[in-house]
Amino acid sequence: MKMKKFTIKFLFYLMLFSSVSVFPRTKLTTLPERNNVRIDIQDEKYTLVEEERKINLLKGKNHIEFAWANTGIQMDSIQFRPANQNGETKVLNVNFPPEGSALFWEVYSPASGPESFRISYLISNLNKQISHEARVDSSEKFLSLMTYYTLSNQTGERFVNASLESGIGLPIKRDIDFNESRKILAHKTNNLNFEKVYRFDSEQYGKNVRLYYKVENKNNKEPKPISAGKVRIYMDNPSGEEAFLGEDWAEHTAYNSDLELFLGEAQEVKVERAIIQEKEKKVKGPVSDYARTYRFKIENYRKESTKLIIQEHLSGEWEIEEIELKEESGERAALSEKAISYSQKIKVLKKDIENLEIMANVPVTGDKKWNLYVTVNMKNRW
User: Do the Cβ atoms of 367 and 307 come closer than 8 Å?
Assistant: First the structure.
């Protein structure tokens, strides 16, 4: 009985492969069988792999096995085709054995000899994490931005001399070993213009002024977006040493847009906010308008003028009613204020229905302070 079963099984395989005298066999883990491999790592979940293999075919029908045990290949994504689409070599059909970790293609060839095929598939667990390194010169005039990605390979597969396409910069050829994490420089942009910007937003950040580098992504030689990722910021000193300035998270920044990098809380620029008056103006019945006056006391202890942006958050219907800038000097009984023109120094804008924005170019104040008074008419309040 056992002999009979063995004979039937043997005859089945003999009939299945009787059309070929050599069984061309490719395995995903057999590295010499790959001639080229391209890896597209732009998608966050799956990685597209496209490889080219040269397979010796016999004239007539050939059966080719593709196995991927213990890897993250998505079976439904596998595509197999001759590299020369205009030739007479054809893929006739594909068969999926019950075990589910291999498949067989039946290929027709008009003649015996080597033929190049392209195999593409999606694979999981090849992960990319983007990070940046920003470097400024000691004069704080220009900034260089290096973009890296760290590639972590947990696919169960090793890729040799793979062309990596990250969507950042040009393709890069690298070996990627299994269980390897590798940090790769993808792109570098030199001489980006930037400026120091100080921001004050009491609702978001409390009493402190925050310092940012506002970077123009506007290098005409390299018109590329800046990808989202962590940024570490350094200053290169003339002595060759580097100083770590801070760390921030960059949002995706399109070309011709600005990227702001947070450096920390400022010590040399101060802002004190207060609501000094709220006056009711009856409209009709229980409805009133309220004239609310904000005072922003501003000090700049830097050695040069400073760009300061103040954000105030409002709600409902409102409009800017009055703006006044005064210079404060003296102390206690000798304290005095003198009105000064603000038109060349300050812009107060209704940015949108919920945001009042003040843009000020603040000179060195020294012993004096700026008192900026902004009155806002809060309309139709119950």
Answer: no
If you ran DSSP here, which 8-state letter would residue 32 be given? G
Measured in whole angstroms, how far is the alpha carbon of residue 228 from the centre of its chain?
2
Closest CA to 182 of 202, 197, 162: 162
Conformation bin of residue 64: beta by default, left when phi > 0, alpha when psi is -120 to 50: beta
Q: Which residue has the tokens 């008009």?
A: 110
> Residue 170 and residue 168: Cα distance in Å, rounded?
7
- Using CB atoms within 10 Å of the CB of residue 180, give its burial: 0 to 12 exposed, 13 to 18 middle, 19+ buried: middle
Distance CA(242)–CA(259), nearest Å, equals: 22
The whole-number average pLDDT for the span 97-102 is 77
> pLDDT tens digits, residue range 348-367?
999 999 999 999 999 998 88
**Interstrand relation of 47-57 and 113-123 (parallel, antiparallel or unpaired):** antiparallel
Domain boundaries, given as residue ranges, for the chain? 19-35+50-121, 126-195+202-265, 269-381
Instruction: Work out the mean pLDDT of the chain and round it to a whole number.
Output: 87
Number of H-type helices and E-type strands within the chain:
2, 25
Give me the CATH code for the 269-381 domain, please. Answer: 2.60.40
Which residues make Cβ contacts (< 8 Å) with residue 155, sequence separation at least 6? 47, 71, 72, 123, 124, 125, 126, 178
pLDDT in tens, 264-284: 999 999 999 999 999 999 998
Residue that has been written with the tokens 């019945």 in this structure: 285
